[in-house]
Specification:
The chain is of the alpha+beta class and 191 residues long. The chain has 6 helices and 7 strands, in the order αααββββββααβα. The strands form 2 sheets. It has a 5-stranded mixed beta sheet. β2 and β3 form a beta hairpin. α1 packs across α2 and α2 runs antiparallel to α3.
Amino acid sequence: MDKKIKLINLFKNLLDHKSNEYTFAINFKRIPRVKTGEHFEQNIKELFDKYQIKYIYQPNGSQQYPDFILEEYKIAINIECKTSKTKKIVWNSGFPHSNVIVVYAYSKENEKDITYFLVDDKVESGTEQKVKKWEDKQKDIVAKAFDTEFNLPDWSFYLRAMYNDKMNYISNPKRREWEQNVIRFLEKNCI
């Protein structure tokens, strides 16, 4: 089976609640004081291995974008994995990047689901750069205020961005359309 078909089949199977792929991916562990997302990422890694999909895991380190890069296609495919108990996503280390597939797992007690979408379906093109400029300005303002307020020459203050996405991705009316857009994106770019 060629690599394009393998990748598309994996993504389709992630949505099929009767498939082994869905069952395996969604059954990540929730262990106190351990990041749940890491367990979900490990499950996705194992599925990539099962489908013989070559990937680079955390190419820029832990807590940095992206979680995976798939390089053996027409373009590099960047993938972010997100999990939550609230049906909403928190972007801890910055605003979501364009041209990224987000694989999102919701898991709370007996209620579980997986979806995926392209960030470009959610965020208008160019927004990422505007937010980055705004974020840099805020960091400068806070750093100067810290220096002015306190006489601590050996100290600095670092402001870390955290973006709370208010959308419920599980019951989103555009969910199926966005999932199909990922499949079309893969069909177009996995040559």
